[in-house]
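Morning!

This is the sequence you dropped in the shared folder:
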Amino acid sequence: CQVPIHDIDFAVAEVQRVAAAGCKSLQLPVFPSEVGQPDYFDERYDRLFSAIAETGMPVCNHIGLNTALNQLADRDPVPRLAWTMSCMPLSACEALGMWLLTGPLVKHPDLKVVFVEPGLGWISWWLFIADDLQARQGYDFPAIQHPPSHYFRRNVYLTFIDEPDAYRHAVERLGVDNVMWSSDYPHPVSSWPNSRAVVNRMFDGIPAADRQKIVFGNAARVWNL
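The structure's back. Tokens below.
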């Protein structure tokens, strides 16, 4: 369910309405500045995030909503905007940094935030950089008390489609409980109609319990299915 953020009273009422109707997932604007609103560390959102946390529904951030790439799309000579598409996952670092570095997950420790379709490899690297910056003198993160990876593992979840090193990234830095496989049907990057073969290839030889979490168990838990 899409939740508008221009009117917080309405947004809170809408979250409560759709939760009562049995809805399972929420989507907020990934980049609130694009709709003329403050970023999510602003205290105006506190009542909204508290209401969302009470429902147990996750907030989803979809990677394809960054209008900063519009100019690139206008210049892109590649069929189906493949150049632009390759940049979309990486542009999610703006939203990821907002959630992890500016304090909303400190104030709302029960909030679940899902990044939809960003992949895993670049986030594994980004999380290393963020933790490293926080540990160094000269960089200050006054809104958080722990490394960014602490809030990531507690509150943030990722979906990916087909990455050869997905399991390694999950184990080494992201957490097996935080990553979820997706088919992305019916988009061109979808694994359909070979999804089972793709899953078998990616997760060949890994522990059955971890495979179960990544393929469906984590999703069932995050979306209360």
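Headline: The two ends are 16 Å apart (CA to CA).

More detail when I'm at my desk.
O.
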